[in-house]
Amino acid sequence: xxxxxxxxxxxxxxxxxxxxxxxxxxxxxxxxxxxxxxxxxxxxxxxxxxxxxxxxxxxxxxxxxxxxxxxxxxxxxxxxxxxxxxxxxxxxxxxxxxxxxxxxxxxxxxxxxxxxxxxxxxxxxxxxxxxxxxxxxxxxxxxxxxxxxxxxxxxxxxxxxxxxxxxxxxxxxxxxxxxxxxxxxxxxxxxxxxxxxxxxxxxxxxxxxxxxxxxxxxxxxxxxxxxxxxxxxxxxxxxxxxxxxxxxxxxxxxxxxxxxxxxxxxxxxxxxxxxxxxxxxxxxxxxxxxxxxxxxxxxxxxxxxxxxxxxxxxxxxxxxxxxxxxxxxxxxxxxxxxxxxxxxxxxxxxxxxxxxxxxxxxxxxxxxxxxxxxxxxxxxxxxxxxxxxxxxxxxxxxxxxxxxxxxxxxxxxxxxxxxxxxxxxxxxxxxxxxxxxxxxxxxxxxxxxxxxxxxxxxxxxxxxxxxxx
Length: 469
Fold this sequence. Notes:
The protein is α+β, with helices and mostly antiparallel strands. It contains 11 helices and 21 strands.
């Protein structure tokens, strides 16, 4: 037999088995996608979940995982890692009992971890069965808390009204695991029940979902909601209702009932759009997850899905955090620009605010930096201020940060400029490695970073790392 013919036969045989392998894996992935979609639809519709279907999903994940782990290709390592993580999480949520608090954060009234905590629900799974979601007003469990917790700086002066830390303001810390643990403490005290974690969902996430599903008609209210009017229709200013009022909860539950059906159908028609959106929501921190399960927590931390403060092993660290303490929904119409200048002697952060509301924006501004970076002064509209809260704080996982906080109001239809001057213990060459964290709930912000004679300009939509020459 001629050599070219032998090569052709061998190549054809290899191609056949390669195509056959790809086809088998495609069938496996296709089956997994269909089964997952069916299971999701059961959960969304409130049907009894099919245990056999859950077991089939896990078995298919195991098969995919085993096949991937047998392939020794470096480029597939990250994909294999994702597959391993997905299998572990799926087993826990489909085979084990789980219970998480879901907090709904209104980014129009910005707080450190994403927005005012006005409503909540629970994610409870028993023997593979999902308990139907029911949204409740946060003031219901808050009214059952009879203790007193000292409020931290900023919250104490501007929000607590002398009542100390309360559940609606328990997401005061930008390190989400710390805020989540505070939320869990209040629910433990009021319900005498242990939850395994907290899932935070921002208003932005709902609006982005509505951008894909399209308009939804709510028959009980004879109104249609979409990404543009949802916040306005759902809004219930705290000055206009009493604790225990069910009006907002009733509206949100009616919306959720219709929305789940529309979402299930929309995901079936356009799954790729929702995969892309899920990635966006996690990167922008419009969804944050904290778990007390150590295996899940390790995955969340490694994949930076837990809203944790971290410096990415870079020398300079900046984390600007705003908290609306004016008890109003002004943040949607507040714009800001940030400029950071770094030279041999000092660093200067400038923040220019434009408030387009008819109401003032009362902002308790915080800056988190490394402890070896020291505050020199803070100026608001070119006037140095003396009332500054400053400390080296420690998160529950042992990280230390220098916290600088002060009141920085912006008048209605007004502008304001904040200037923060810092002095680092590092030499100028050590300051060229910079990490900037994005606050959950804060819209895209224009940044300009100047180091020596170099500049970088960008919109901060997720945590940003940079190294100058």
